[in-house]
C-alpha cells in the first residue's frame, strides 16, 4: 500500500515498505532490522518515481540469485586489502548482515588469500555458512561462486577437477553453486585452454558444481567456450568481467551483447573501480600500497564522472557508491562489490530497492565518456600487455604473466618463486609434475 508523502518530507528521500508494513527511513541501520529491509521479492515504495517497484530474484542458469552479490577478494588478501585474521569476526557480521537482508550470492576464488593464507576466502565463507544462525531455508539458498586459477601446473582436466574438490573441501560443502574458470590462457598458453574447458565439463558431469561460468574472457573466447560447452550438454551460466562506469570499453559492451544473446548472465566485478568510484579518494588523498599507484594515474581524469555521481547521489539521498552500483544493476548485470566492514555492507545494500531513471543513466554514461581515463583491463581478458608493462615499468616476462592474476598479486616475488609454485603443487597433489 503506497502512502503519499507529506510536505514536510523531502521528495528526494526514499522510504521502504517491508513485508510487515513497517516504514524504515534511509538512516535506519540495516543490522537492527527485523524482518530484513527487503527481500528480492518484496515491494519498495519509490516516491521519487511515483510507482511501486517490484524487485524479483534473478535467474542464472539453474540458479536463482539476488540482483547483487558480494565479492570476497579482500578476505585473506594482505597485499592489496590489508587483511588480518583479527578481521574475521567483523567479516562474519558482514556475511550475516548480507544474508539477513536478502543477499545469497557470494563470489570467491581458490587463489584469494596471500601466501600462507591462500584459500582463506573460501575457508571463511564455508565457516560463516555453517555458523549462520538464521533459518535453514535461507542458508540452503546461499550460492557460492568460486573461481579456479589457471596455474601453469594445472595442465589436465583432472587437475581442474582436483582443484574443484579442494575448494569444496575448504568450504566443507557438498556442492559448489558455480564453478568458474578464473581466466583464459589463450593469450600466453593456448594448449592449456582446452584442459580448462574439459575441466569445467568434468566437474559439471560429476555433480561437483550446479553450474559453470567463466571470468576474464574476451568476446571471441566467450563465444568459443559457450559453443564448446553447449555441444557437450553443459550450459554456460555466467561470465564475469570488469564492468563499471570506469570500464565501458568496446570489449565490455560486446561481451554484454553476447551474454544477452546467448542467455549468459553477466557478473560485473570491480563495480566501484577498486574504490575509485567511492568518492573517498582524490589525487591528494590516495590509498596505501599498490592501489595508490593506479589511483594516481587514473583519478585526475575522473572529475566529470565523480561530479555527476555526487549530483545524482545528493538528489536521491544516496551515496556515490550506491549510485555507481545501481548503474550496473540497471545495465542488466549482477554487480559483486567487495565488502570488508559492516559499514560497507550497509552502504552496498542501499544500492538495492530502487532504480536510476533513464535520464540519470544517460547523464552517467555521458560523464563516463567525457572522463579521459579508464580502468586498465585484466591482462587475461584482452590484449593489454603494453598498457600493463607501462604501469609496471618493465617488459613482462612470461613467468610474470602466467604466475600472477592482474591486480591480484600474491606476496612480492611469490609468482616468480619456484618454492611457492612447488608448495602449491604439493598441496594439490601434483608434486611429481
From TrEMBL:
Q: Which residues form the NADP-dependent oxidoreductase domain?
A: 67-365
- State which residue ranges cross the membrane: none
Q: Which UniProt keywords apply?
A: NADP, Oxidoreductase
Tell me the SUPFAM superfamilies matching this sequence. NAD(P)-linked oxidoreductase (SSF51430)
Q: Which PROSITE patterns match?
A: ALDOKETO_REDUCTASE_2
Spell out the Gene3D superfamilies in the cross-references.
Answer: NADP-dependent oxidoreductase domain
Q: Name one GO cellular component term.
A: cytoplasm
- Pfam families to which the protein is assigned, alphabetical: Aldo_ket_red (PF00248)
GO MF, one term, reads: oxidoreductase activity
Superkingdom as given in the UniProt entry: Eukaryota
Protein name listed in UniProt: NADP-dependent oxidoreductase domain-containing protein
Which organism is the protein's source?
Gossypium klotzschianum
